[in-house]
């Protein structure tokens, strides 16, 4: 999602639309309070050999897909 749209100025002239907008913001904030962080899949590679093997594997996959 583009973040530049968040800072764009907009105007709500309909009172009911303004109320719906505020309610949506409040619901989003409440939902965020109860959301648990998601663990990223995989693990962090720290060993130089592991990193080199991973890079080699990704490079061969990209070549096979014609993206490299």
Brief summary of the model shown:
By secondary structure, the protein is an all-alpha fold.
Show the helix and strand layout.
Layout: H1 15-34, H2 48-64
Overall residue-averaged pLDDT value: 88
Mass-distribution shape: elongated
Give the beta-strand count: 0
| Low-confidence parts | none
Residue fraction in strands = under 5%
> What value does the Rg take, in angstroms?
22 Å
Structural class: mainly alpha
H-E string:
HH
Q: State the distance separating the first and last CA atoms.
A: 27 Å
Number of domains: 1
- Give the biggest beta sheet: none
Q: What portion of residues is helical?
A: 40-55%
Number of helical regions:
2
Detailed description of the structure:
The relative contact order is 0.06. The chain is mainly α and 68 residues long. The mean pLDDT is 88. It has one domain. It starts with 14 loop residues before the first helix and ends with a helix. The chain contains two helices and no strands.
Structural key phrases:
68 residues, mainly alpha, 2 helices
């Amino acid at each position: 999602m583009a973040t530049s749209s968040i800072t764009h100025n907009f105007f709500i002239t309909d009172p009911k639309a303004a109320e719906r907008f505020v309610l949506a913001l409040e619901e989003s904030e409440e939902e965020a309070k109860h959301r648990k962080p998601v663990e990223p899949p995989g693990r962090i590679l720290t060993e130089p050999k592991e990193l080199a093997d991973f890079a080699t594997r990704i490079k061969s996959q990209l070549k096979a897909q014609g993206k490299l």
